[in-house]
Write a structure and sequence with these properties.
- By secondary structure, the protein is an alpha/beta fold.
- The protein is 27% helix and 24% strand.
- A hairpin with a 2-residue loop joins strand 3 and strand 4.
- The chain is globular and about 45 Å long.
- The N and C termini lie close together (6 Å).
- The relative contact order is 0.22.
- It binds hypoxanthine.
Length: 249
């Protein structure tokens, strides 16, 4: 089954015919909210609002382990994560979507693994060369093409700690590192999904130029972000409907 993790601007999924909500307890605590099971135009999916239904959980306090564990426990096999980001690459202007293929993690102090004392005999090291599931990336791109989106078919997602935005110098450094976009929630979500064997990819929505770039040279305009996010999430919903039509076993 397909799971959709909605980020900022997507705390609910309009058009989802809800069949049930389930509060799933996990060994890692409670997920961000109840899992919402339903159908998108006749196709079954499960939806989880990463920041909670009322958008109250900041990026650094999201219980990523519980979120992914709960989905896995409910027989989810594929996950598409919706992530709002700031655009760093000159081609990733606000209003554009992307399917990143790489990650650099600048976040800290988050629970990044299920490996703990007592839950395995051997120390293992999860391969993370290609952090996203290629099959899921292809599905995202197929749906984006069908929806007529002019998206970026790759890119490096730089995950920062937040909740504050970055300085200009931080973005300059991230650009030198090779980051094409900056967001706050891509990690540890991606590596936890990989540990659980979930086929996971992200659709990133550029809702502003990153600090110091484009029209963000003096400051990032929060009001402009809100408007753009609402418009972009309508388009994302259309992409998600197309994704739900594909088969997930
Ligand atoms: N920085 C970090 N995270 C973000 C941004 C940004 O500029 N825009 C949306 N999420």
């Amino acid at each position: 089954m397909l799971a959709i993790i909605g980020g900022s601007g997507l705390t609910q999924l309009p058009g989802l015919h809800i069949s049930r909500r389930e509060v799933v307890r996990t060994p890692y605590g409670m997920p961000s909210g109840a899992l919402t099971f339903g159908e998108l135009e006749g196709h079954p999916i499960v939806f989880l609002a990463r920041h909670g239904h009322g958008h109250t959980i900041p990026p650094h306090l999201v219980n990523y382990r519980a979120n992914l564990w709960a989905l896995h426990a409910q027989k989810v096999t594929h996950v598409v994560s919706i992530a709002t980001v700031g655009g760093i690459h000159p081609d990733f202007h606000p209003g554009r979507l992307a399917v990143p293929d790489q990650i650099i993690d600048y976040s800290h102090g988050r629970e990044t693994t299920y490996a703990e004392y007592g839950n395995s005999d051997q120390v293992t090291h999860q391969d993370f060369t290609w952090p996203y599931c290629d099959e899921m990336r292809q599905r995202c791109m197929t749906a984006l093409k069908e929806a007529g989106e002019d998206f970026l078919a790759g890119g490096v997602y730089g995950c920062v700690q937040g909740p504050r935005l970055e300085t200009r110098a931080e973005i300059e450094r991230m650009a030198r590192d090779g980051c094409d976009m900056v967001g706050m929630t891509g990690m540890p979500e991606a590596c936890l999904a990989k540990e659980l064997g979930l086929c996971y990819a992200a659709i990133a929505a550029s809702v502003n130029w990153a600090a110091g770039r484009g029209d963000s040279t003096q400051a990032i305009d929060a009001a402009a972000i809100e408007g753009r996010m609402a418009e972009m999430m309508q388009r994302v919903r259309d992409v998600l409907v197309r994704m739900a039509r594909l088969n997930y076993i």
